[in-house]
């Protein structure tokens, strides 16, 4: 009888612990404590540092010349400064809403269209700059690297969306 009571107590305790851990994952405050890698990088590095690291990675992958490295560093620095400014703007809006006790407002459809349009314009400009900077072979490899990274991101987010759906199904 004692063994049965001990076994029942262990089962109840482990089930309770598992429930609190599962609930913690869905809690907004808990999620706020974990910063995605991109946010940590934006907080830790200056735009110049981010551009330097990206340029060096691309130098290793594409075997760039000195001249190409210098030009690419300028391009990457410019892009990193824009990204940092946009990140800081979004972060400030989020903190302002949090201070007011509100949830951050999602952009309207017009704002989303404008943001996507601007992002695509930047991508076109970057592609044009890279095409003029790199050799045909380097440009081809760069394009393949971008596609590979894009595919990895799609898989990552697909997996996260599936996890969310599974988590919502369990809560009901």
From TrEMBL:
Residues 92-124, 137-172 have a biased composition (Basic and acidic residues). Residues 1-18 form the signal peptide. It comes from the Bacteria. Keywords: Signal. Residues 92-172 are annotated as: Disordered. This is LTXXQ motif family protein.
